[in-house]
Design brief:
2 copies of one chain form a homodimer.
Chain A: E1 5-7, E2 19-25, E3 31-37, H1 39-48, E4 52-55, E5 60-63, E6 72-79, E7 85-92, E8 107-110
Parallel strand pairs in A: 2-7
Antiparallel strand pairs in A: 2-3, 4-5, 6-7
């Protein structure tokens, strides 16, 4: 198991200054959410020890759980091999999804088109 | 546990016609890779039962394991609550990362800048 470390200056931000972040429950290993971070939200995530994202729809910082109380305590942050994706392992205080589901990935994809 | 299903026509492709896909080992629940799919690669993934991505760097279809043999058999595909991210649970035939590591997320982020 590699223990190589990567400095924050090596992150490859996209053309909008963002990086995709996969949030995983450190205990159950369930994938909870895919969200985005800019440099400021990543710095806040690291200093607070809780996830802070950049909301692309609201174009604003989004401290997860700030209103719901369902914040996510950060256990570890990993960077992928080409430094353009983050894996954030967390201890969640409650559901990750705004629907109340534990994970945002609570729907199965089916091949045929929807009728509803 | 919800068993709601989502049709492929409900996917929200980004402005480049892509969707981000998180690949997770279905057995160990390790997050292996973050990659991207366009409509064609997603259709191929579903029909082949193996992951096929869209390589943004090469601007080409990328059937994972085609040259390395390390393909990923698809167990389940989930869609997130706003239909702009996929979670692909797989049974991998070998390492996901081109470095030979099991996962592309084999490096820890450290807050300070790198010296190397």
């Amino acid at each position: 198991m590699s223990v190589e470390a990567v400095g924050i200056d090596q992150i490859k931000w996209d053309t909008n200054g963002l990086i995709v972040a996969v949030v995983q429950d450190a205990a159950t290993r369930q994938v909870l959410t895919v969200a985005y971070m800019n440099a400021q939200s990543l710095q806040m995530t690291l200093s607070l020890g809780e996830t802070v994202f950049w909301s692309r729809s609201r174009q604003a910082l989004w401290h997860k759980g700030e209103t719901s109380g369902n914040n996510q305590r950060v256990i570890q942050v990993s960077v992928d091999c080409d430094a353009d994706a983050l894996l954030i392992e967390v201890e969640p205080a409650g559901p990750a999804c705004h629907t109340g589901e534990t994970s945002c990935f609570h729907r199965i994809l089916r091949e045929e088109s929807s009728r509803d």
